[in-house]
Amino acid sequence: MNEYGESRPSVEWAVTPSDIGPLLLAATRRGLVSVVFHARGPVRERALGRIAGRLGAEPVACASGLLAEPIRRLSAYFAGEPLEFGLPLDWSLSAGFNERVLRELASGVPYGTVVGYGELAERVGRPGGAQAVGAAMGSNPLPVVVPCHRVVESDGGLGGFGGGLETKRRLLALEGVLPAPLF
């Protein structure tokens, strides 16, 4: 049994529209556990399968309202409100170095700012670990909310991004870091 008296964790999911396409959100009673880009058809089904396998619980479509606040805050974010999400997060899909990097990113890189891979590596005590930080960004189960789009190359390049570079550009433009695209 877990801390909530359940033998298996309860996982709820919903797909919400956004300016960067549909996002799949999943939450447990601890908090938001996953955000998935481009959550149509097969992408959504694969993501739900991975979540079920990793958490040992079959996700159910939004049942108790666990996702109401994350959906509201993401809507506000995409409407241009400069906010820190301040949501409870369930870190069950991260561990070790990756989790340490992602927690530092979540708490230490505010809206409208960017950080280099190398600088983030130094912040978590691993100077010279820029590539390891890049791998941690690639493992981020909570993109947008844990803002891996704010991590860039030291020479000004965007670096990689699991949601695609156009998505990264759009998120950075939304936050005022890059100019908005003309069309």
Please characterize this protein's 3D structure.
With about 180 residues, this protein is of the alpha/beta class. Helix content is about 35%, strand content about 15%. The chain has a four-stranded mixed beta sheet with strand order 3-2-1-4, with helices on one face. It is globular and about 45 Å long. About 35% of the residues are buried.
What structural class do helix, strand and pairing data support?
alpha/beta
Radius of gyration: 16 Å
Which geometry do the CA atoms define?
globular
Beta-strand content: 5-15%
Main β-sheet, spatial strand arrangement:
3-2-1-4
User: What is the element string, with H for helices and E for strands?
Assistant: EEEHEHHEHHEH
Which stretches are low in confidence, meaning pLDDT under 50 for 5 or more residues running?
A: 1-6
Key structural traits:
183 residues, alpha/beta, 4-stranded mixed β-sheet
